[in-house]
Amino acid sequence: MPVTKKEEDSSHILSIDIGGTSIKACILNTKGDLLSEFKKLPTPENSTPEAVLNCIKELVKSLNDNFQKISIGFPGYVKCGKVQTAVNLAKNKWTNVNLAQQVSDLFGKPVRLINDADQQALGIVEGKGFEIVWTVGTGFGTALVFDGDLLPHLELAHLPITKDKDYDDYIGDRAFEKIGKEKWNSRLARIIEIYKTVFNYDTLYIGGGNSKHITIKLDHNIKLVSNKDGIKGGAKLWDLEEKYHVYTNHPNKK
């Protein structure tokens, strides 16, 4: 996606994507067009809330642009701007963490914080019928959208799929490295069949770092997407009304 010419408009949006391996950020206009380069830094090895916040500060320094709103996609369960789970970040450090409020106070701007797969989905879906978005990378991210409306987030990655494995264990990075591409694709095919039966979706989109390893034949209503396809999600998040897990944190007055 090309970077557009910088605009005079002051309604620019800082879009942040926090992942298990890297943290990314860029500046968008309200249409979701890139107004800056797409910057990223490795996710801190000791990925505590403090370390992640410091990483965000470093990224924003490198962007050097004005923005009036902030969108954040987070790899875990988020409710009303507070993080409840983050299994791929620092263990036992992310329960009930008011990350959105901290970022809002840091930059003095309103913040919307949702699950990272949900934010990606907003930039990917066509807004027609029941659409599901997967991200297959460090873990297994999922988002559900109906007629363009983001549905309440479900941490489907933590449903059991075998006696001793959930979806994260079964199809995530560690599994890929352990079992290899061929068996990983067989597992992906099994999950697709489960979703077809359980959800009867209109369209399934598959993205994330490991989507490039998919070799199985996909149904006509399954589409491969890239991380860049989801960039617009950071802008589209601000088009939604506040309901379910879409919530705006405003900076505290000093």
Secondary-structure topology with pairs:
Layout: E1 13-18, E2 22-28, E3 39-42, H1 49-63, E4 69-74, E5 78-79, E6 82-83, H2 99-107, E7 111-115, H3 116-124, E8 130-136, E9 140-146, E10 149-150, H4 167-171, H5 173-199, E11 203-207, E12 222-224, H6 233-236, E13 248-249
Parallel strand pairs: 1-4, 4-7, 8-11, 11-12
Antiparallel strand pairs: 1-2, 2-3, 5-6, 7-13, 8-9, 9-10
The number of strands is 13
Secondary-structure element order, N to C: EEEHEEEHEHEEEHHEEHE
Q: Proportion of β residues?
A: 15-25%
Helix content: 25-40%
Assembly of the depicted chains: single chain
Number of helices: 6
| Overall 3D shape | globular
Distance between the terminal alpha carbons, to the nearest Å?
Answer: 39 Å
Main beta sheet: 6 strands, mixed
Instruction: Tell me the strand order in the biggest sheet.
Output: 3-2-1-4-7-13
> Could you report the average pLDDT, rounded to the nearest whole number?
92
Could you characterize what this model shows?
The protein has a 6-stranded mixed β-sheet with strand order 3-2-1-4-7-13. A 5-stranded mixed β-sheet has the order 10-9-8-11-12. It has a two-stranded antiparallel sheet with strand order 5-6. It has helices at residues 49-63, 99-107, 116-124, 167-171, 173-199, 233-236; strands at residues 13-18, 22-28, 39-42, 69-74, 78-79, 82-83, 111-115, 130-136, 140-146, 149-150, 203-207, 222-224, 248-249. Strand 8 (130-136) and strand 9 form a beta hairpin. It is of the alpha/beta class and 254 residues long. It has 6 helices and 13 strands.
